[in-house]
Here is the input.
Amino acid sequence: MNKNKIAIVLGIVCTILTIAIVIQINTIKRTSSTVSGSSSELKDEVLKWKEKYDNAAINLENAKEELSNIRESSSKNDETASAKEREITLNNNLLGFTNLEGKGIELTVKDDPNAKSENIAPYDDISLHIVHDGDLRSIVNELKNAGAEAISINEQRIVTTTAITCIGNVIKINDEKVSSPFIIKAIGFPESLESALNRGGGYLERLNEAGIETTIKKLNKVQITKYNGVINSKYMKNIQ
Amino acid sequence: MKRDKITITIVIGLVCTILVAVMLAQFRTIEETDIIGIETSREEELRTMIASWKTRYEETEEQLQETDQKINEYKDKAISNDETKALLEEELNKTNMLVGKTNVTGEGVIITLTNNEYSEIEYTDLIALVNELKLAGAEAISINDNRIINMTDIVNVNSSTILVNEERIISPYVVKAIGNQKYLSSALSLKNSGYIDKYTSWGKTISMEEGKNIKIYAYNQEGKKGSMEFKYAKEVE
Here is the structure.
């Protein structure tokens, strides 16, 4: 009699506990599987649009080249026409749509290699030892002031619509992620470009004081690659 | 009999303890990981990436169609000199506009920054604003009617004078930008993190108005060396 009672109670307790565990396992499975399922779908979609963009960018590059060839060949027999053609080509060079080469400098800017949380004194701030978007904007501005004709940072061409920003701790140029070491190329008179950056109290001195490493090379040949994006004119119109 | 009872009780006790322990462990893991929270933030990031690639694809595709159309026009029409010249003229006007050689008009915003008793506007404030405007898709920008072109520099002469394109300007600084009016104004006036809130909280005087027909003047090439031509750079393949 007593044994039976115990067995029934035991059975009920075990069943309830087992059911509870099964329910828990099921909920965990369901939530995690649906979430990761939809996020892998999203990843696929990111890749799909990136691939579509990559293809369109290649097609655009080819089309631009064909256009520039046909423009040149159809204007070569006429002096005013070929003058116009040369002006269009110059504009496209200025806009950053072509690869350029010339004298200039190559500047490398690198986060302080000792900037790790275990090395930083308690009163120090680790963010002082890494390169920020504002530093890159200032360097670009200094180079423009020193007469740079074309600039790129980690192969991202600086064009009229280029923004250099920081979201979280990711620096973006032309909406592309870039990170330290930053290789900044500029075409222009090498001595002016170098002295603008290197002068006492100049921008590089300030960075160096914070442990950020910089090196400048003056070069006879700097190659700067073209901008692959689009410069929009949806909202502005020419007026006389 | 008595021994049997004790064994059974011990077994029951053990089973119960194990089951309860398993359940507790499960509850804890669920609480700690907060799976849904992590996944939704990643999802949001992925959605932003999709939107960004999609926009870039659409812009590139549009430009591609425009370029293909130009190619065909040259192929079909550029038989006589006059027609060739007309096509060239059209392309020249478009690229002149993008470079900043023409006066342009369109919708956008006008931001005015003024020195006040406690705080002066610095050149770095203007560099940061120009950067924000570019990020928000501005197509043309000027400061006190000095057109911002690709190689425009903004530097200080002294605390109250700033140089833009080698021209001296002083407060009030009137920054005009043409682009999507809603997009430009909402990007600048984001609560707390937007340019206007941020710089106002630092004691700067800034105001913004929207406009349908903002006029931005061409880059003034007179008396300026370089900027619109190359001395050192050459095109290569």
